[in-house]
């Protein structure tokens, strides 16, 4: 059976384009998946950002550890992050634009960092942080809104 190249116009891939003899669709999404294709890259981005936040900032709780050790550990954690981020962007690009993917990644990063900073690093979240993050979220809104017609 030959695969037909299909342009994806919606967030959901219609089953009629899937291989009838396989549980895997041509675009890599599983027929039996409990995660909708539009949500799949978001889940992967959240998971990758959890790892990346720990890779970048987790060592700050241990200032007495040697730099070479924290660099090695951070790079090990970052490898896992890349194993999640690359598929997130590859699958996500079939549904979202590059600007939308990057915007999602930034908003997810900030949300995870706020929680990480408060719970793991025990640093308070100030009103300045909340206002700054709100402005970034407002920017994300405009990215997803689409072209503004004047």
From TrEMBL:
Alphabetically ordered keywords of this record: Membrane, Transmembrane, Transmembrane helix
One Pfam family, short name: DMT_6
Record SUPFAM superfamilies: Multidrug resistance efflux transporter EmrE
Superkingdom of origin: Bacteria
InterPro entries to which the protein is assigned, alphabetical: DUF486, EmrE-like
TM annotation in the entry: 38-60, 66-84, 104-121, 127-144
UniProt-recorded name of the protein: Transmembrane signal peptide protein
Taxonomic lineage: Bacteria, Pseudomonadati, Pseudomonadota, Alphaproteobacteria, Hyphomicrobiales
């Amino acid at each position: 059976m030959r695969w037909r190249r299909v342009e994806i116009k919606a967030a959901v891939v219609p089953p009629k384009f899937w291989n009838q003899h396989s549980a895997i669709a041509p675009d890599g999404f599983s027929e039996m998946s409990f995660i909708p294709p539009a949500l799949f890259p978001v889940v992967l981005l959240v998971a990758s950002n959890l790892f990346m936040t720990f890779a970048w900032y987790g060592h700050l709780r241990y200032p007495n550890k040697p730099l070479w050790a924290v660099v090695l550990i951070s790079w090990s954690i970052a490898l896992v992050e890349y194993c999640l981020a690359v598929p997130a962007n590859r699958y996500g690009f079939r549904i979202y634009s590059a600007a939308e993917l990057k915007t999602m990644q930034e908003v997810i990063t900030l949300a995870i960092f706020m929680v990480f900073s408060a719970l793991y690093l025990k640093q308070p979240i100030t009103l300045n942080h909340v206002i700054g993050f709100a402005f970034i979220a407002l920017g994300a809104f405009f990215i997803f809104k689409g072209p503004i017609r004047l």
